[in-house]
Design goal:
It is a single chain. This protein has helices at about 15-20, 30-40, 75-79, and strands spanning about 20-25, 45-50. With about 80 residues, the chain is α+β, with helices and mostly antiparallel strands. A two-stranded parallel ribbon has the order 1-2. It is elongated.
């Protein structure tokens, strides 16, 4: 296993996380950070649900870059 996951080995079973179907409802302030961190931890099967479009006021408290304003949040999260 890569050193990338060394710090969380005692907290998360990486084999389970990598094979688990994860569903995140809402990728705003909490959901965008949760989704990002799950992906960085090695989760591979993440499905996100959100019908909202990214607006300028979302940038300060969500994990999206400024260039994604106007994009559907699920598409911006995917990129």
């Amino acid at each position: 296993m890569s050193d990338r996951f060394h710090r969380q080995l005692g907290l998360v079973d990486m084999n389970k996380l990598q094979n688990m179907d994860i569903h995140v409802c809402g990728v705003g302030g909490i959901g965008s950070a949760t989704t990002l961190f799950l992906a960085k931890m090695g989760a591979k099967k993440i499905t996100v649900y959100d019908h909202d479009t990214l607006e300028e006021h979302n940038i300060s408290n969500q994990t999206y870059p400024y260039r994604e304003i106007g994009s559907p949040k699920v598409e911006a999260m995917k990129r």
